[in-house]
Write a structure and sequence with these properties.
- By secondary structure, the chain is of the alpha/beta class.
- Helix 2 links the parallel strand 1 and strand 2.
- The protein is globular.
- It has two domains: 152 residues, Rossmann fold; 136 residues, Response regulator (Rossmann fold), CATH 3.40.50.
- The chain is built from ten helices and eleven strands.
- It is 35% helix and 17% strand.
- The strands form two sheets. It has a six-stranded mixed β-sheet with strand order 7-6-8-9-10-11, sandwiched between helices.
- The relative contact order is 0.16.
């Protein structure tokens, strides 16, 4: 087990060596039977974002599609080494997150052209790395719908939002949530803060406490710890990526869920038939692809105003049939 360390974001320009392979698909031959898949994660598999990838891999293994192994709590300094180790072992598909090691990871990718890499990244696909496909949790559709519910449930019109880092992956979800909330009340005020960590529940909790002291009566829980603060102070919360309603039955009204299965299954199929190449798998997180949804309301069923639920149903149908598109805004959100 590697030392727990969290650091994100970095990038390098594409290399001249990578340019030699422009446009070529993965050279691995088509495979029958279970595909060897390895996951490399910088945080525990219980963490929200990573847990969705992990569960999708477990589901594929249960279905007999893959043989799955993984490494968690992998420090960014160790990440390239772990990538190499799995590639040397003959793993056909390596899944993970290279946000903090973009440059180093891409060097590894070039050294193993017959291995498929499906990596979370802030950057788009690059034909200079034909065996590297990228993805992200584009669940702005579900975040928008959860915002509509939040806008109907806040009494003070003051919503607190606690995030990890102001990066595109977080920013777009916050903006979508805020847009949804304003559908119910255009005058809602937002308190926005980032704790500078992907996994620091105590810090997220303290940040949420401050927002409650400043008038927030509903919290957007992008990080673990926020819902705990809401529960202790007797206010409501909206979840993100995973469904925690059963853990907070009197607190979490709704959650935007990420389903990684469409992304994972598409990559597995491409590797098996020999068609895997540089591509943006982020589209598989869209609601119309089955990549995200609004969690069941659970104990809050029937407690959200009918007007809000009618709008949620209308917008969800429009998102799925393509007649309405939730804006993707990657800029850092600000308090208002």
């Amino acid at each position: 087990m590697t030392t727990f360390k969290l650091s994100r974001r970095g990038f390098m320009a594409t290399s001249a060596a990578g340019a030699l392979t422009l446009g070529l698909p993965l050279r691995a031959t088509a495979q029958d039977g279970p595909l060897k898949v390895a996951g490399i994660y910088t945080v525990p598999v219980e963490q929200q974002w990573v847990s969705r990838i992990h569960l999708a891999a477990l589901a594929a293994q249960e279905a007999g599609e893959i043989e799955y192994t993984y490494s968690e709590n992998t420090a960014n300094t160790d990440y390239p080494r772990v990538m190499r180790e799995y590639a040397e072992q003959g793993v056909g598909l390596i899944v993970g997150e290279i946000f903090g090691v973009e440059a180093e990871a891409r060097e590894v990718v070039l050294d193993y052209p017959d291995t498929a890499f499906l990596m979370g990244s802030s950057f788009k696909e690059d034909p200079a790395y034909p065996n590297l496909a990228v993805f992200d949790n584009y669940i702005q559709d579900a975040a928008y719908l959860s915002g509509i519910i939040a806008g109907a449930m806040t009494g003070s019109g003051n919503i607190g939002m606690v995030g990890g880092f102001p990066i595109p992956e977080v920013n777009r979800l916050m903006h979508a949530f805020m847009m949804g909330a304003k559908e119910m009340n255009p005058d809602i005020a937002f308190q926005v803060s980032f704790i500078g960590s992907w996994f620091d529940p105590p810090k997220a909790k303290e940040t949420a406490y401050a927002m409650i002291e400043n008038g927030a009566d509903l919290l957007y829980a992008e990080r673990f710890g926020v819902s705990d603060a809401a529960k202790e102070k007797g206010i409501l919360a909206i979840g993100n990526v995973i469904d925690t309603q059963s853990d907070y039955p009197d607190t979490v009204v709704a959650s935007a869920l990420w389903h990684f299965e469409p992304t994972m299954n598409a990559a597995i199929a491409a590797v098996k038939d020999g068609s895997f190449t540089a591509a943006d798998y982020g589209v598989y997180s869209f609601m119309k692809e089955g990549g995200c949804s609004l969690a069941p309301l659970g104990t809050f069923e029937g407690k959200v105003p009918d007007e809000a639920m009618a709008l949620v149903a209308e917008k969800e149908a429009a998102i799925k049939d393509g007649s309405f598109t939730v804006e993707i805004n990657d800029e850092e959100p600000k308090s208002s």
